[in-house]
Amino acid sequence: MKAITVQPKKPGSAAYEDVPEPDPGDGSLLVEAVATGVCGTDTEIVEGKYGWAPPGRDRLVLGHESLGRVVDPGPARAFKEGDLVVGIVRRPDPVPCPNCAVGEWDMCRNGEYTERGIKQIAGFMSDRWRVEPEYAIRLDPALGIRGVLLEPATVVAKAWEQVSIVGQRAFWEPQRVLVTGAGPIGLLAALLGRQRGLSVHVLDVVTAGPKPGLVEDLGATYHCGKIADVGFEPDVIVECTGVGQVIVDSFKHVAAGGVVCLTGIGSGGRTTGLPVADVGSKMVLQNNVVVGSVNANKRHWYKAAQDLLRADRAWLSRLISRREKPWNFEEALRRSPQDDVKVVIEFAEA
Ligand SMILES: [Zn+2]
């Protein structure tokens, strides 16, 4: 079969090549790939900045945002041939740490977890893949190709859960939410905010392309510019850019008692006008909380699948802004900040 593979930490090593059939050790469910989403992590792995091959191997099958159709359910009675499934990305560390021991592998304490397509386990960008039945999420067939959005949706399902848990330390009736960044994570965070009945505002830097319309069609408000200019102090800020200045501005402008949830991964970058003690004083005097959130556990996968099923199907379809064939994976990795939302690699008809 064919797969998109990479030699981690070696820039330019990605290839669409012949590989052996999936290892039965990867799980008893045999799945035919339908689509995989492409995200910034895939780009970083291909650029040689990130990623680990399985032990004893040189190359890693790329891809962690999956969608596939069961070809052979094996002994798993909960699945049947033709079921639409998505594979969970992370596996608990082998020690395990206390959080992994109770199934909260998203909160792993020792960093020895593994991740499909990222860290030491084959990913999903291959014609066929295997998965353990307990790490497969069955989707309603009505979702079709939109099921490929499940993995990014789990990230925001966890982020919203974290915001809610933190908020409930006091009397908590949030009204207005600001999401920074209108990429797939930001737009799905906005969707979940609307599903909670909140007034949602989304801030990005682009003025054209599909993003402003996608925000408006959620019943949310699109802003272009700085947080200081949105005209209100948000009760919740879901930060999805990872840009230093945007992070600092979110600390400065969140409302009294408000929660900032950081989901973006950035690095470096200069910020201007950051008097740290002043920002700290503001956060003390206004009881603010900053919470980082990454990855997702099985509860979030389950909840995110329900959230996607409740969403408007036509709107979800518009998040998939481009489809590429596996042999054109390099095109899929080149994303336009204005015109692309979620680019997917299509292996078979949904
Ligand atoms: Zn752990």
How would you summarize this macromolecular structure in one to three sentences?
This protein is an alpha/beta fold and 350 residues long. It has helices spanning 40-46, 98-101, 150-167, 184-195, 211-217, 244-253, 276-285, 298-310, 313-319, 329-333, and strands at 2-6, 15-18, 29-37, 60-61, 65-72, 84-87, 90-91, 114-116, 120-121, 128-131, 136-138, 176-180, 199-204, 221-224, 236-239, 259-262, 289-292, 320-324, 342-346.
How would the global form be characterised?
globular
**Total count of helical runs of at least 4 residues:** 10
- Strand content bin: 15-25%
**Rg (CA only):** 20 Å
* Helix percentage range: 25-40%
The SSE string, one letter per element, is EEEHEEEEHEEEEHEHEHEEHEHEHHEHE
Distance from first to last alpha carbon: 19 Å
Low-confidence stretches: none
The biggest sheet, with number of strands, parallel, antiparallel or mixed sense and barrel status, is:
7 strands, mixed
Which structural category fits the helices and strands? alpha/beta
Give the overall pLDDT as a whole number.
Answer: 96
Question: Total strand count, please?
Answer: 19
Bound molecules: zinc ion
SSE diagram, text form:
Elements (H helix, E strand, L loop, with lengths): L1 E5 L8 E4 L10 E9 L2 H7 L13 E2 L3 E8 L11 E4 L2 E2 L6 H4 L12 E3 L3 E2 L6 E4 L4 E3 L11 H18 L8 E5 L3 H12 L3 E6 L6 H7 L3 E4 L11 E4 L4 H10 L5 E4 L13 H10 L3 E4 L5 H13 L2 H7 E5 L4 H5 L8 E5 L4
Parallel strand pairs: 8-9, 12-13, 12-15, 13-14, 15-16, 16-17, 18-19
Antiparallel strand pairs: 1-2, 1-4, 3-5, 3-10, 3-19, 5-6, 6-11, 7-8
Helix pairs in contact: 3-4, 3-8
The chain binds zinc ion.
